[in-house]
Write the structure tokens for this entry.
Amino acid sequence: MIALMADGGAGRSTVARVSSPAAPMIEQIARAIATADGSRFEDDPMRFRRLALGALQPLTRPTNTMVDAAHEAVWSDAYWTINSRADFKKAVRAMIQAAMNE
């Protein structure tokens, strides 16, 4: 499960990573939504999965800011250098973080 927790009102959230790496991303997000809502995922798992799918949908059309962040995270000598899974993960993390900061 991934839980978003307020940092005492400073306007940021932290992510507590207690999810299983084997859990599908939709379920991890669904559980995080349930936690953020103060609900139990087990009470209505289909609802939280629908909400997770809805939350992910806009990420299929990244903004220019997101693409710029991904490029900045992995560029070298003005070329994209995604040569490994770690590079790709770094780019994706940068894109999502940029979206959260917009």
In short: The chain is about 50% helix and 15% strand. Residues 62-101 form one domain. Residues 85-101 form the longest helix (17 residues). The chain has two domains: 2-59, 62-101.
